Amino acid sequence: MLRKAMRAGKIKSKNYAIFCVMENDVEKIISLLTKASEEEKELIRKAYDFAKVAHGEQKRNSGELYFNHLYETAKNIAELGMDPVSVAAGFLHDILEETKIDAQIIEKKFGKEILFIVEGVSKLGTLKYHGADRHNESLRKLLLATSKDLRVLIVKLCDRLHNMQTLSFVPPEKQKRIAMETLEIYASIANRLGIRKLSRELEDLSFPFAHKEGYDEISSIFKKSYDEKLENLEKFRKSVMKELAKSGFINFHSDYRVKGLYSLYKKYLKSKKDIDKIYDLMAMRIIVEKTEDCYKLLGIIHATRKPLPGRIKDYIAFPKFNGYQSLHTTVFTGDGDLVEIQIRTKEMHKEAEYGVASHSLYKEGEKNKKQIIHWIDAMLPYSVSDIKKDFLSERIFIFTPKGDVIDLPTGSSAIDFAYSIHTDIGNKMSGVKINGKLSPISTILKGGEIVEIITSKNARPNRKWLEHVKTTFAKKHIKNL
Question: What ranges do the domains of the chain cover?
Answer without folding.
Answer: 2-210, 226-355, 394-479
